[in-house]
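Human: We require from you a protein record containing the residue sequence and its fold in token form, and nothing else.

Assistant:
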Amino acid sequence: MVERQAVSAFAALGQEHRLRIVRALVTAGPDGLAAGVLASEVGVSGTNLSFHVKELSHAGLIQSRREGRSIIYSAAYPALSGLIEFLMRDCCQGRPEVCTPAVEALAACCTPAGDTAHA
């Protein structure tokens, strides 16, 4: 990810409802959430949701697909990973203890429950 993309992503995330939308979609996993369910989860109207998902889509942070009559939104995991990598790329300047908490938090969220071999 280049700086221009990161700025766009952070600008899109710099609003309470949009941040909630991304967090809800990350929690939902790759299957995503139907628009109505997502709107309920973040506490916005359908019209308001449309406005916010448009901004997040333009920033490349979420994607949508049609399933029958429903629109399903999901997190764009490669873009989100790229944003994290952009922030951490030059981390610690030879002091791994600075980055260790962030790396451990990411590793913990990505380890399947009960899988101690990868923890």
